[in-house]
Amino acid sequence: MKNKLISVKTVVAIGIGSAIMFVLMRFVALPSGIPNTNFNLSPAIVAVFAAVFGPIAGLFIGFIGHTLTDLTWGSPWWSWIIADALFGLLIGVFWKLYKVNEGKFGLLQVLSFNLIQMLANATAWVVVAPALDILIYQEPSDKVIVQGAVAGALNAGVVLILGTVLLLGYSRTRVKAGSLKQGGDYKTSKK
Q1: How many CB atoms lie within 10 A of CB 73?
Q2: Torsions phi, psi of 98, nearest 5?
Q3: Distance between CA 20 and CA 34 in Å, rounded?
Q4: pLDDT tens sequence across 110-169
């Protein structure tokens, strides 16, 4: 039964991550000064869960968390929901590279994680969200490009600071492979 597509642990992570994302987007968001674009901490949660649990968790947390938020405001804005889901997926694709679960989230992994999250933010918010806004909702291109660029920059900053700190803290709680020795490996002195 090891060949499951998705583990119980991942399903639980999706539920918890989606709930945290919803609360942060719905109740802890601040206006950015650009219409319909807020500053919030949810991108860090999506990135952290994707880095720890992988691409499926990142995809579904981004999708479910954003959809729930939009439903409480009125109706789903599918272009941005898809962008959040894509962001989580892209971070999660490289989850083994970050070595968070092995307790080895060091300088090289921090740099890799942040390079990837910045590229994922640029892809999701500067390319995908504006393109889908134009295709689905016939929004003016100059408006959605500015919204996407601001959202991408804010999200990248939140993940850089909060996401990195959370991953460093979580990684420190993980036992490094080979760090525990079996009893009896110590030398005793004979008299």
Answers
A1: 10
A2: -75, -25
A3: 24
A4: 999 999 999 999 999 999 999 999 999 999 999 999 999 999 999 999 999 999 999 999
